[in-house]
Amino acid sequence: MSKQHNTGFLAMVDAAKSRVREISIEQYNAHQAPCVLIDVREDLEWQKGHLPQAMHIGKGVIERDIEGKVQDKQQTLVLYCGGGFRSALAADALQQMGYSDVLSLAGGYTAWVNAGLPVTQD
Q1: Is residue 4 part of a domain?
Q2: Active-site residue numbers?
Q3: CA geometry: angle at 59 spanning 11 and 88, to 5°?
Q4: Which of 57, 54, 58, 48 is nearest to 121 (CA)?
Q5: Whole domain around residue 101: which residue ranges?
Q6: Residue 93, domain CATH
Q7: How many CB atoms lie within 10 A of CB 22?
Q8: How many domains is the chain partitioned into structurally?
Q9: How far apart are the C-alpha atoms of 76 and 8, rounded to whole Å?
Q10: Bridge partners (DSSP) listed for residue 78
Q11: Is the model's pLDDT at 37 over the cut of 50?
């Protein structure tokens, strides 16, 4: 059962997605350039499982903490959340902060798991 989102939230996501580039799981797996994979989900979501090699910076603190973790604003960043909505909002904010190569993983963690790809727990 998928989560039903409110119309105001969906309008914000749609606006962000018009400014943010999305990347499919297939494109991410074929991506050759080095990138930083960032999970923007909540702490409990992260603890239940996340993509291998991901760094966790929750959406609620990413603007505050990103510059301490990724100083190079030209570094490719791939953000994901549960379904690709929060990651689009976070990617939009990072672009406003001057990060020039930010991508949102389409479908997020749910699409990754549904594709049968590996996850890890810390």
Answers
A1: no
A2: 81
A3: 40
A4: 48
A5: 32-114
A6: 3.40.250.10
A7: 15
A8: 1
A9: 29
A10: 37, 103
A11: yes
